Amino acid sequence: MPYKSFKTSKPKSTITILPKLGLEERDFVADFKRYYSHRLGRDENCTSPHYAYEALSMAISDRLIERWKKTYNTYKETDCKRAYYLSMEFLMGRTLSNAMLNLGITEAVEQAMYDLGLEIEELIESEPDAGLGNGGLGRLAACFIDSCATLQLPVTGYGLRYEYGMFSQDIVNGEQVEKPDHWLRNGNVWEIERPEYTHRIKFCGRTKSHIDEFGNKRTSWVETQDILAVPYDTPIPGYKNGTVNTLRLWKATATEEFNLQEFNAGDYAESVAAKNTAENITMVLYPNDANENGKALRLRQQYLLASASLQDVIGSWVGRHGNDFTEFAAKNAFQLNDTHPSIAVAELMRLLLDVHGLVWNDAWAITRNTMAYTNHTLLPEALERWSVNLFKQLLPRLMEIIFDINAHFMAEVSAHWPGDTDRLGRMSIIEEGHEQHVRMAYLAIVGSFSVNGVAALHSKLLQQGLFRDFYEFWPGKFNNKTNGVTPRRWLAACNPELAGLITENIGNGWLTDLSLLNKLKPYAKDEAFCQKWHDIKQNAKQKLIDYKKLEHDVDFNVEAIFDVQVKRVHEYKRQLLNVLHVIHLYDRIKRGDTANWTDRCVLIGGKAAPGYYMAKKIIKLINNVSHVINSDPDVGKKLKLVFLPNYRVSAMEKICPGADLSEQISTAGKEASGTGNMKFMMNGAMTIGTLDGANIEIREEVGDENFFLFGLTEGQVGEMSHHYDPNGIIDQDEDLQRVMRLLECGHFNQFEPGLFDDIMASIRSPQDPWMTAADFRSFIDAQKRVEAVYQDRKLWTKMSILNCAASGKFSTDRTITDYNNEIWKLTPVTIDDK
Ligand code: 26W
To answer: What is the pLDDT of residue 412?
Structure first.
């Protein structure tokens, strides 16, 4: 029919008025079929589960987007205060089963897939992990935004959309080999590109100043090389509450004119190359988790995140309030996830001064009242410092602003401590030396109203050590926020059997108020309940065995104690101490000291930073020891050691339900918090651990009698470091001597002479900062206590239940409630989910 215009005035748009999508089994069957066949163009001949995964995800994504818009509009209408979580890493893992759980549609979807003759498990498994993070800090960000949505807090996550996430780890001849992780290869159904919110980011060029009509000095940043930041949004659903928040990730692309300039000069190929340089910025995640490397590309990434996110927030502010910033600090808070985005302090100043015309004092007051900084590590090698020369070249205007911030700050310090030049030098944001550096942590502290650590001990050590001068200057700025993990992913979704048993007995309130798990305590005395708990745990162990069978040919025995250490490989986390214990057990078997033996399967997994020589050696050692032990017929089922390749979020979801013993054995004072410790505890594993990070609070919650403590305290470590004598310790301890002898005679590297010399030298070095030898004896003794308890099955089960029951504090719902009450001060916003 030909189009005929018969209306005179433009009609009111009704394009977004839609009937609400159904959440019943039949709705998913119908939508699945339509997407599978009409959108994806597949039929029964298609054998890959990927397209079925995509079709189902599209159907579920529709339901998320429906609620997402409502949430967005409600926030806009109420003009509520907002917070923004700025992070270079969001280690999201998989989305499908989490979306099902939070929408409350798990059963309906499972039934629908069954009706269609599909295995839901297979679809879930075909989703790649979104591995946009290294480890603890990135996964914490992911748990945080889950809790913000569940608590109905208006919080947006801002990060980078890396084309390549955390590398995938292969083990070849016992060594780590990195493979690029092209996680977007098959597309990403969960994200929506929003080119309409693109922002321009400046680099290089120079600054130019003039005096404005009011006599103020004004600066402009000119002759820059610009790139564009394009946002990709992912919906973040709360748990069954209608709230869907946003994770906005930036992708770098080239500007049109950047290409055009070169094109007009006849350099077509060069113009395409220039596009590549621009897009390089968000190409890859830096795989270092505790070592800053000063690379210019990393600084570009950090600035892109800070600038795009701040322009985004300010742009929408100006849209609603014009150029009036009087209420800005009352309505916005930025949480900086470590120093990685802390250039935001200077960038907010630049935007307020140069773009929106504010004067210094007003801009500074806004900055200092909106920024909050979280520190995640005490290790000096992880503290970011950028060369002033590099900064000047890449971000000349930002460097000027940092010098100005520092000049004002130095004046404040001198007024407070007149004549204390040592202190001025110590506190300066600019570190002097043969090359000047910007100390990013100091910039973050000076520019924030709140500074926090991530566990009680860690926050105390920040105040007494690393940031002591700042704490003396501004004691009120400093606070602690003990980490947590989301109980939806880390108990409900990953361990449905255990979650089911819990809910059957104490109801389902624990899913949003984890402190209710303490109602489980009395059940530790209930025999029938204990039997069920034990059976579920054994089932989970069997599942873990089956999962690992795919990759290994090691015979695991479900009656053995499953002893697990999975985390990034780092000397301070002391995977090496774990291996020394395994070698000691092997030595006992070989010398026939096996009376009253407890069978044990030791699982170790984790990635090493590609440039971290010692960490890679430790991985090789674990694999070599594993090979010798597992193929020795004298050892048999008494002892197994397995290195799990490619540890990642989706692997932990399978590992933590099946663990008996959680290894949290860092040198005291080095692990800021740890969060794996919390996941294991929640799933009923016992902890063997030092007094470090959140272990201390875990032990406080569960009681000394339900925690296997060992090792020097942080104070003793500091004390002993002045006269540490590992060789003396080894000489005095026959077991350790024998372990060292096995290592030193090349028993684990018979065809690779000299391979582990550096490891042995590090254990014997009086300068060993990780003091592995010092804690050996106490670790071995604690492991013996573990075995004694494990042999008493009833006692072990009781302690397992009590660990889960005491894990309530370690929900990110509690952590985020603390952030909100003490830092952000947002009001929860109810979303109408009818
Ligand atoms: C600049 C290179 C770099 C990259 C990442 C330096 C430091 C990091 C992070 C701070 C490393 C990290 O993930 N830290 C971990 O953060 C967790 C969440 O707070 C804590 O639980 C861990 O103890 C801490 O190691």
So the answer is: 98
When computed from its CA atoms, the radius of gyration of the chain, rounded to whole angstroms, is: 28
Residue pair 660/686 in contact by the 8 Å Cβ criterion: yes
What does the pLDDT read at residue 404?
98
Catalytic annotation present for 568:
yes
| Atom 11 of ligand 1, residue of closest alpha carbon | 289
Give dist(CA 229, CA 469) in Å, integer.
38
Q: Cα separation of 66 and 33, whole Å?
A: 20
Q: What are phi and psi of 26, to 5 degrees?
A: -65, -30
Asked if 119 and 358 touch (Cβ cutoff 8 Å), the reply is no
CA of 311 to the centre of ligand 1 (A): 27
pLDDT tops 50 at residue 550: no
Active-site annotation holder among 74, 367, 482, 675: 675
| Residue with tokens 């409502």, as numbered in its chain | 70
Q: Is 218 a catalytic residue?
A: no
Taking only the tens place, the pLDDT of each residue in 217-230 is 999 999 999 999 99
Q: Does the pLDDT value for residue 406 go beyond 70?
A: yes
Determine whether 638 is an active site residue: no
Residue 236 tokens read as 């973040």
The CA-atom distances, in angstroms, between 57 and each of 35, 45, 130, 448 are: 10, 20, 15, 40
d(CA 342, CA 11): 48
- Distances in Å between the Cα of 764 and the Cα atoms of 144, 725, 726, 831 are 41, 8, 5, 61
Mean pLDDT of 234-239: 98
**Per-residue b/e over 742-758, b at no fewer than 16 CB within 10 Å?**
bbeeeebbeeeeebbee
Encoded tokens for 416: 């407070």
CA distance 775 to 322: 61
Structure tokens, 193? 């590109």
Q: How high does pLDDT run on average in the chain? A: 95
Q: What residue type is assigned to position 691 of the chain?
A: L
834 counts as catalytic: no
The question of whether 376 is a catalytic residue gets the answer yes
Report CA-CA distances (Å) from 415 to 448, 476, 519: 20, 19, 55
Beta strands in 495-653 (DSSP E): 561-566, 600-605, 639-644
Residues with beta carbon inside 6 Å of ligand 1? 134-137, 140, 288-292, 338, 376-377, 382, 384, 454, 483, 671-675, 693
Atom 5 of ligand 1: nearest residue by CA position: 289
| Choice from 338, 677, 679 to test ligand 1 binding pocket (greatest atom count within 8 A of CB) | 338
Instruction: Quote the pLDDT of residue 259.
Output: 58
Q: How far apart are CA 430 and CA 29, in angstroms?
A: 61
Does residue 603 contact residue 647 with C-beta atoms inside 8 Å? no
- Chain-centre distance of CA 148, in angstroms? 15
Listing DSSP states for 101-128 in one string gives HHHT-HHHHHHHHHHTT--HHHHHHTSP
How many Cα atoms within 13 Å fall on the side-chain side of residue 78? 17
- pLDDT by residue (tens digit) across 285-335? 999 987 778 799 999 999 999 999 999 999 999 999 999 999 999 999 999
Per DSSP (E only), the strands in 375-503 are 385-387, 430-431, 437-439, 450-453, 478-480
Q: For ligand 1, atom 16, which residue shows the shortest CA distance?
A: 137
Residue 56: which of 123, 129, 126 has the closest Cα?
123
